[in-house]
Amino acid sequence: MDTSQPTAGLALCREGEVVVELSWHSPRNQSAELLPSLEFLLARAGKALADIGLVMVARGPGGFNGLRVGLATAKGLALGLGVPLVGVSTLEAMAFPFRGTGLALCAILPAGRGQLAAALFRASPRGGRRRRGEHLTTPQDLAPRLPRRTLICGHPPADVLEALGHPPVAPPLGPAVGVAALGWERFRQGKVDSPSRLRPLYLRLPSITPPKPVPEVTP
Questions:
Q1: Could you tell me how far CA 164 lies from the centroid of its own chain?
Q2: Which pLDDT score, from 0 to 100, does residue 210 have?
Q3: Are 64 and 202 spatial neighbours (Cβ–Cβ below 8 Å)?
Q4: pLDDT of res. 124
Q5: CA 208 – CA 132 distance, rounded (Å)
Q6: In 3D, which of 57, 103, 100 has the Cα closest to residue 76?
Q7: Which of 4, 8, 117, 185 could form a disulfide with 26 if both were Cys (CB 3.0 to 4.6 A apart)?
Q8: For position 27, what pLDDT does the model report?
Q9: Cβ(154)–Cβ(91) below 8 Å
Q10: Which mean pLDDT values do the consecutive 10-residue runs of the chain (219 residues) have?
Q11: Is the CB of residue 91 less than 8 Å from the CB of residue 61?
Q12: Helix or strand or coil: residue 189?
């Protein structure tokens, strides 16, 4: 599951291969929509919760509330069903399906305040080797760091592509597709997460407004 982005996604997979996938625009309502969407997806596939043997979830970077909902739901499912849990970087999951292109990869998500969440991966036939992990940057700072032959994936705004010199852009995929593939690979390598220790990946702490003081009431 991936609730780190405004477009949320769920996928049921068998050994990393997606069997059925669902994505929908959900910028603020993941807490109300995630479990009903999971029930719909299971019913569509003729499956039940008891059939789930592994839970894989995007751990960020991404929206603060969406990440909290996704990780809380994933942990609850893993604990309730007694199955393993695997957390996956959102940016790495975005780049994963394109790692066989032989091009350097740059996964991008808008991060607000004129910044981007980005991660760079080295050009390789097998891919997956990090050049630089998840970090906050700007288009102006990122552009000179990109290798000449770089494939952009994720959700880069049009003005960002212009600032980066219009590099090639990978076709969008369902948000949960890369989570499923990379999560299964991690699981096969024995890299599972403890529900009590898995934390969301925030590149910036959320902006929380302090509560206003309550005025004293004179009797």
A1: 23
A2: 53
A3: yes
A4: 66
A5: 29
A6: 57
A7: 8
A8: 82
A9: yes
A10: 94 93 90 95 95 97 94 97 97 90 92 92 68 93 92 90 91 90 95 96 69 51
A11: yes
A12: coil
What pTM, to 2 d.p., does this model score? Answer: 0.88
- Name residue 90's amino acid: T
Q: Which of 72, 10, 3, 88 is nearest to 47 (CA)?
A: 10
d(Cα 89, Cα 117) in Å, to the nearest integer? 12
Closest by CA to 18, choosing from 155, 178, 190, is: 178
Do 26 and 70 form a contact (C-beta atoms < 8 A)? Answer: no
Distance CA 58, CA 88 (A): 5
pLDDT of residue 219: 47
Residue pair 42/12 in contact by the 8 Å Cβ criterion? yes
Q: Using CA atoms, how far apart are residues 106 and 160, in angstroms rounded to an integer? A: 12
Provide the residue type at 197 as one letter: R
Alpha-carbon distance of 123 to 128, in angstroms, equals 9
Q: How far apart are CA 98 and CA 33, in angstroms?
A: 29
d(CA 11, CA 17): 10
Contact 111, 80 (CB under 8 A): no
Containing H/E element for 186?
Answer: helix 175-188
13 close to 19: Cβ distance less than 8 angstroms: yes
Beta bridge partners of residue 58, listed in sequence order = 88
Distance from C-alpha of 101 to C-alpha of 168, rounded to nearest angstrom: 12
User: How many residues make up the chain in this entry?
Assistant: 219
